[in-house]
Fold:
Amino acid sequence: QSGLTQPASVSGSPGQSITISCTGTSSDFGSYNYVSWYQQHPGKAPKLMIYDVINRPSGVSSRFSGSKSGNTASLTISGLHAEDEADYYCSSYTSGSTPVVFGGGTKLTVL
Amino acid sequence: QVQLQESGPGLVKPPETLSLTCSVSGVSITSYYWSWIRQPPGKGLEWIGYIYYSGDTNYNPSLKSRVTISVDTSKSQFSLRLTSVTAADTAVYYCVGGRLRRYFDYWGQGTLVTVSS
Structure:
């Protein structure tokens, strides 16, 4: 496993939708759908937004959705709000030698 | 309400040992998997390892030779020891809980540990 690849930055205007990609190899994802996404505001701890590719924890807005196709997972945020501006990290879990790997993070700017 | 609180020295000299403890409240420590995740200043997240209350552990291979994670169920605490630290170990260290090993539901506020002589 070599880690997951995310774009360094994405941006969008309020009300728009954006998608953040998370690309890995077959060994990064294995045969599992164990991808999670975390939101981190400056100076704060990360917050779980999506788990098992598509599931939202209680309390997370339905504007956040996840998907996966092949070796690329995606986080989509619809109807952007100013407070969505943050860093976003993807993570995968496999039964490999390094069970948990993170992407490098994507900085979302709301214009 | 689940709460996690890290405690330990904010400054460690190389090549000494970094030791942190996480106090867990609001949930039984036997219910979750407990992890340590770190974040160097201005950089991304790195998983260090996890422990289950039974003592089952799994560590990041890149740190495995230097890391020990332990749990004290009587105190609802789990701990991290990282030996032979260098400046590259300077980071915010988060203690984290997950209902399953594959994602992280609850995070402590994080504690900055600086490695410097």
